[in-house]
Amino acid sequence: MNNLRYSAPIIVTIWTFILMSNTAFAQYSYRTDLVGESQVPPIFSESYGSALVFGNDSSLTYQINVTSLDKVTGAFLYKGEKEEKGQVLVSLLNSTEPSGVINGTLVEGTINSSSILVPLANLTTNLTSAMPAANNLTTNLTSAMPAANNLTTNLTSAMPAANNLTTNLTSAMPAPAPASKLASLIDLMNQNMTHINIHTSKFPEGELRGTLINSIK
Known about the structure:
Blueprint: H1 2-24, E1 28-34, E2 48-55, E3 60-69, E4 72-79, E5 87-94, E6 102-111, H2 127-130, H3 134-144, H4 153-158, H5 162-172, H6 181-190, E7 194-200, E8 208-211, E9 213-214
Helix pairs in contact: 3-5
């Protein structure tokens, strides 16, 4: 009975440490199935595979497994929507000599900012293009307001001028915070904007492909 009484606080302390450790560092995990049907355009392949990418803000670890895949020449992490071929971000495997038939682990390793082949600007999504320009915002707001002569003097005076509204909205928007390449890559992964593509000598542009999906949401 005494042993149980003394061991309970120890167990609580251990669990508290584990929970604090997990919350101190953001943890990420993404996975995908790799099939020929996901290629652009789709192809038929008797092989298939899976990919797992996990880690934290410092680095990501990846592992790619395949079944009955022959003559592999490369494996790459791409940026792009499901319907586009995309742009290579990270070279996970690149060989001048095609492999033999592989059943099991194809490649594993780590990704950090220095692993990413493109500039930081190529990793960020174009939020600016999705937002209306300030002039358009002013025009839209102005056109949505009833004509001035239909308003009472009090309502007109209570309403800020369109230019002031635009200025206030613009000044209220925070400037984009600088980010590392790895942080931007993780952001793309969270938006389902990255995929793994395995190239073979039979299909030089890719035989197996799959979009990475957040597996811990």
